[in-house]
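Researcher: Next sequence.
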Amino acid sequence: MKRKYIQSLILLLIFFIANSSKAQTLYALKKTVNGSFTIPFDIVSVNPFTGSTSILQSTNGLVAVAAGATAFDQQNRRFISWGFDSNSNQKLYVSDLDSLTTDEFNIPTIQPIEMEYDLQTQKAYGLWWDGSAENFGEVNLTNGNVTSTSILPGVQAVAIGNSTFDSNSGTYIFIGVDFNGNYRLYSVKASTGTIVSSPVIWQNGNRYSAIEYNVNNDKLYGLYQNVDSSNFDNINFLSYFTDLQLAEINPITGTLTVIDTNNSVISGYLPGYAVGGLCFDQQSEKYIIHVQNENGAFLKLVDVSDASIVASTPLNSSEYFYELQVDNYSFARPFYNLTANTEDNINTPEEFLVYPNPATETISIKTNEIFETIKIYGNAGKLIKQIPFQASKEIYIGDLPEGYYFISAENNATLLRQSFIKF
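Model: Next structure:
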């Protein structure tokens, strides 16, 4: 049974958000040996300002993951992955970041790609090809069952890494190809599986991809490929210079509007993004994406209000990760008036704060509760420190190695647990 305590969300974007309690946690998959077909993936937290990662737990058996085939269960802090074990068995992996356990479910005949999570209903959805048609349906995160809601007529193929979810209207959005070879922006009503719109896109050179939905303003975003046809490199790269620019996309018409033509997320002769390497932080309204060009790879945080680059972190060969996810539950809970999945007497995240986060030397706790002791645990669950509780006193963490930690406080009625990053 899932442990019943409040889960805080790491405040990764603290330096760029005035209210430090409003940022979110980034997660991804990573192997200790990149490219190994025997070593399973670990789930890691990602610091967007350094590119560094901290191992949270192992998936135990996932050795190969399908691009775009992950999601994050916001309600219960579970990282969801579809992929293969070392014996080439297809499985759904549900990794619980609280209990540090992973459940494996055999799904030999269905390959749920482009999984997306509905913040409002706390359900996961995906697409899969059954041999003759594209299916849309729900992925049960409790038992691994995948149930078809509908067959999507006319859809022949799906653009990998190009789906998102509008939790306000319950609409699954993806880029696909029809049987005539036209690229379309499909919007599917999740409750019925009905296609509500499917405009033809990518006409007249207006190509875009890497779509994400902002529920704050009901806008769809993507990267527009602005190709400079007058700047062709015929020596080194054999390609045109291209700016990838953030654009607003109309899901009904499929048309786009570049937010700021003077700002680019990434530019170069070989610009691109890592498939599965993007997410959207609803709290801070930041578009987060792993991009690269001929000069290297970067983790970018983009403010969608003006397309300005909030952070551009170079990533070296050791700072690789796949399938980037963001924890948006602290945003979704008040936004959709959700109730916590617990029977215990707990506080809301706003009533039990750890700040600053990330931190280097000290952290402080803000709470109205009275506790006896504060305990700090490493990401593997090992107790690191135990100190008397004082709400206003700073806690020294300068002696801790860089990484991901949990801090807990308990009395007779309540157990509170938050997480923070030491860097």
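Model: Residues 1-23, 340-350 have pLDDT under 50 and may be disordered. The first strand starts at residue 6 and ends at 7.
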